[in-house]
Amino acid sequence: MAGRKRALVAALSLAAVLAPAQGAAQGAADAIAGFERDGRGQGFAYTGLIASRPASGRYGLVRKLFVGRLSYSFRSGGRELGGRQTMVLPAAGARLTEGDCTVTWSVGADLRESRVERLRRPPLRSRDAGVSFQVEAYRWGRGFSSVSFIASFSTVDGFLWARLRAGHGIGRLGGHIRLSGGWEAVIMGNDAFNAAQSGLVVELADTSTTLSVLVKAGLKSASVYDTWYWGLELYRRF
To answer: What pTM value is reported for the model?
Structure first.
């Protein structure tokens, strides 16, 4: 059970920093924030910055910094206990742009600090550090359509997280607001835990300020429970 609990924390930690809005791929500087929560009370919030600049021809350099906070609950000895985790993930990498497609790959540190409540004992505190690897691919089409894929792996506990998301423009609300809808599917896991979730996404993008707001909701099936989830993502390009 302890291994599954650690794996669940890893799953939510990775998700916390791998959820940019659908258009977040190639600004000179991108600010991203959001949160996700499920029906079992597991939740996380995050914020981050992505900076990129041209390097040579179709290639560019990318730097990232994300900070996240995770909270979760579990039962032990007939009581409901809680835990939380703070994470910092700095990373750097490269980006290739070809027409309406971009591919980004990066490597960085995965730094985590955890606090877990225990029965009749002081909370358990720990710190972990490892290396994270990530690859992202985006493609834009006509009608505000987009397809994105993100995959990440952390050496902290051998955890893999991957998401496929597709969206298409529905129409405009006024002169500057465009409405898009789509679908996402996420898989995650390691030797102790695995899960899959799928749901719908709706995005409002203000083309005059490059601000996007995305709402998502769906169903999650995990090796330890089945439930629903929902979340909110904010994205701004500078």
So the answer is: 0.83
